[in-house]
């Protein structure tokens, strides 16, 4: 909290009527648990978190953010359980094919988008962007390791909940995932190091000077398993709007020799970002932010 706020809080509490204070505390508690309450509490859902998105069911948003607050590092547990479902005999083949397939789909879809819809870039800038995209290295965290090492890593601490002791087993798993997050040293041994410790989804990281994009393989495995009946694979759709900014967008447009985007182009870009976030929330975990590790 803000130190200034804390210093003023005792005076505010001293001057506040007890009944008013108790009513406020009760109101905040109701708002906090509103995702679990009956439909009559629906007007409070938007107040239960600070990341409201239009066109997304309010209860879905509120429940996801509540789960995020309650189950920190939960994405590691869900992802490891998903990864461990793969058949050990076919794991290596499936893993390699998935990674190569994702890279081809991603580069192809973004190249098509650059060639067809980059109205605020001239042809030379588009050519530079396409060339940069073709030469970009897409590195999946852990992909260079032995597949057995990866499988063992993601299987670690991924035991299911005990139906007879739900709360106790939940706390044990929660504690275990938190310990893995904080105690893994050095960071290069942590294949999930780009997880925000309070978020439900891994991020990605781009190194401009090296033209390298880091992306957790676990994210791809989890979403592909979750959407295995849907094609094309949903992951490229989640990256296609974020990757172009690394090769030709906004401040980097000047580096590519193209003009700065006009105001209505920026509006369209922000709308694209919102659509990406909304689509992610409707179909899977929320991609919220990146976390850096040294590479």
Automatic annotation (TrEMBL):
<dbReference type="InterPro" id="IPR024079">
    <property type="entry name" value="MetalloPept_cat_dom_sf"/>
</dbReference>
<dbReference type="Pfam" id="PF05649">
    <property type="entry name" value="Peptidase_M13_N"/>
</dbReference>
<dbReference type="InterPro" id="IPR008753">
    <property type="entry name" value="Peptidase_M13_N"/>
</dbReference>
<dbReference type="GO" id="GO:0008237">
    <property type="term" value="F:metallopeptidase activity"/>
</dbReference>
<protein>
    <recommendedName>
        <fullName>Peptidase M13 N-terminal domain-containing protein</fullName>
    </recommendedName>
</protein>
<dbReference type="GO" id="GO:0006508">
    <property type="term" value="P:proteolysis"/>
</dbReference>
<dbReference type="InterPro" id="IPR042089">
    <property type="entry name" value="Peptidase_M13_dom_2"/>
</dbReference>
<feature type="domain" description="Peptidase M13 N-terminal">
    <location>
        <begin position="1"/>
        <end position="138"/>
    </location>
</feature>
